[in-house]
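>> received
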Amino acid sequence: MRRCAANAIVGDMKKHHHRPVQTKRRDNTKRVDRPDLGLPPGSPVYVGDRSPTEMRLSVIGYDPIGTWTKAAADVGELLGYRNPGGVNWINVNGLKDADSISRLAEAYGIHPLTVEDILNTEHRPKVEEFDEYLYITLKAISWREAIDPYAGETSGFDYEQISIILTRDTVITFQEAAGDSFDPIRRRIAYNMGRIRKMGPDYLAYGVMDSIIDAYFVVLERLGTELEVFENRATEETGRDFMKGLQAIKQEGLHMRKAIWPLRESIASLLRLDSDLMSEDMAPFLKDLHDNVIQAAETVESYREIIAGVLEVNLSFISYRMNEIMKVLTIISTIFIPLTFIVGVYGMNFRFMPELESRLGYPIAWGVMIAIGGGMLAFFKKRKWL
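>> returned
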């Protein structure tokens, strides 16, 4: 899972094209050089912005009558659990063992280029059709609570690439690390809830995608809550922290857009797909999935507009405050100009100034200056400059 640092909002995380040099990640750890540069196409090499985790294998088999769950120590053991009479769901947690993943792919006739895409966690969401399987990749987004802020573990959003292989009797899911939002699916399988055990592997693949997309709305709600806080502070804050926090939210919205926006075309391509692997009965479910993706994408776009509005309001507020300060300083300067003139005149060291010998010269000068200052203040208030 990808981590994003976000002390001000919450967090951010980048998953797009990286240069093949050492760069700083947002959690202040260094990213190593891309190991796939210069290798031939189809080379099974992990590419990501964090160290890959150890692989854990599990398989769930089910049919309308019953279900079973197995954990496997290696691919050889996993392949021994294959049940051709029902639906099999193989889940691969961790992408460190590229050789084992290649072996699993070979057993299911998966093309080496697909294996390369599975191990490259920086792909944008897409759907690819092959003769014997469909390859679907998309981004899972989740909220990470702060574990140890002193050690750099801050709250933020985690991004993880999920790859799905759909064959005629098996769904294989590949995850970067342990932990997912698939437990509701597992419960429905275990307790025969809903229609999942009555349907084929295409419905299971749909269920996995639906679970990931449903999680988008949870993180979007969290982002919306953070954005509301900044909306309320827009006419109160003028410091650097506010601008840094708002910029972090803006970047978060941008990365969510990159994760969600391409899914519209991916799901639409599944709707247009003419393949035996995706039955016609799935059309209503995929249409609903497409609608949810569009709703999530539109929510991200609306957040971007709100962020721009908050930024504009805050800059206007800062400008307004600066204008108020300058207005007060200008008025003070304007009042003191004639007073400074009077004081300057009577500060000249000429002997024969007529007012210098007057006993009332000093209080008269003060009276004139006070009258001038008070008159100018009254004039400014009348003109509503104060």
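>> The first helix runs from residue 75 to 79.
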